[in-house]
Amino acid sequence: MRVHVVSDVHGNADDLARAGDGADALICLGDLVLFLDYADHSRGIFPELFGVENADRLVELRTARRFDEARDLGRRLWAELDVDRETAIEGAVRRQYAELFAAFPTPTYATYGNVDIPRLWPEFARPGTTVLDGERVEIDGLVFGFVGGGLRTPMRTPYEISDEEYAAKVEALGDVDVLCSHIPPEVPDLTYDTVARRFERGSRALLDAIRRTRPRYALFGHVHQPLARRMRIASTECVNVGHFASTGRPFALEW
User: Fold this and answer.
1) Model-level pTM?
2) Who's near 38: CB < 8 A, 6+ residues apart?
3) How crowded is residue 54: how many other Cβ atoms within 10 Å of its Cβ?
C-alpha cells in the first residue's frame, strides 16, 4: 500500500492534480487557501485586492512581529476599498476551493489547516473526498486519526481554536497507527521556522498523545521551513510532510 501525503497546498492546484500519481490514496493535511505568498508577494488573495506594494508592507510588519501595525494596515486598506470584507474574502476563497477540490484524486482523505474555512468545504468536497476532523479511518489495515486546524495566535487565521477544544479532538481519536494533523506536536525543533525566524504554535495535546499511545507515525505540516523535518519520539516517527506549495512533491508512506 502506498499513500501520498501533502500539507500547505496554498493554491498549488497544478501540482495537487498530480500528487496522487502512483499512490493508492492521497492525504491532505490542510491549508488549501493562499491568502499571501511570503516568497512571491504578487500571489494570493491579499495582493489581488490591494496590490503588491501593500503586500510587501504587510509581510514586513508580520515578519517583524508587529501584528498590531499589520492589523491597522489591513483595516485602513479595507476602508479604502469600500467593499464588504467577508464577502470579498469568501468569494476569493470559493474560487480557490473550486479549483483545488477538483484537483483531488479518488480517494482523498483531508483535514483542515489553520487558514481554511471549514464551513465551505461541504460545498466543494466531491464523492471520493472524505473530510475528517477529530475522526478516524482505516486504510488497508492501518488506523489513521485526523485533527484539523491550528491553535490561537496573534495572526488570527480563520480556523484557530482553543487548546482545550483541540485537545478534545485529539483525545477522541484514541489509539491510532498514524496520527495526522495540520500543526506539529509541541517540540522546539519541529515548530521553529528557520526562514520566518520564529516558533509556530505546536500542540502539547499531540505530544502527550504520541508519548501515551505511540502511533507508528505522526504526520503534519504548518511549519514551512522547520529546523527538523523529522525526528523520533519514543517509537513514533514524526514527519513534517513538507511545504507542498513550494515543492510540489508529496511525502510517500508505504506499508
Assistant:
1) 0.93
2) 59, 63, 196
3) 18
Q: Please give the helix or strand (H or E) that residue 232 lies within, else none.
A: strand 230-233
What is the mean pLDDT, run by run of 10 residues, along the chain of 255 residues? 98 97 98 90 92 94 90 93 89 96 98 98 97 98 98 94 98 98 98 92 98 98 97 97 97 98
Q: Which residues pair with 239 in a beta bridge?
A: 219, 230
DSSP per residue, 187-204: -HHHHEETTTTEEPP-BH
R_g over Cα of the chain: 18
> Distance between CA atoms of 230 and 121, rounded to whole angstroms?
30
Cell representation of residue 250: 508529496
DSSP one-letter code for 105: -
First to last CA, the chain: 5
**How far is residue 193's CA from residue 62's CA, in Å, rounded to a whole number?**
14
Distance (Å, whole) CA 215 – CA 31: 24
> Residues 187, 130, 246, 117: is their CA dihedral positive or negative?
negative
User: Alpha-carbon distance 134 to 156, whole Å?
Assistant: 21
| β-pair partners for 226 | 193
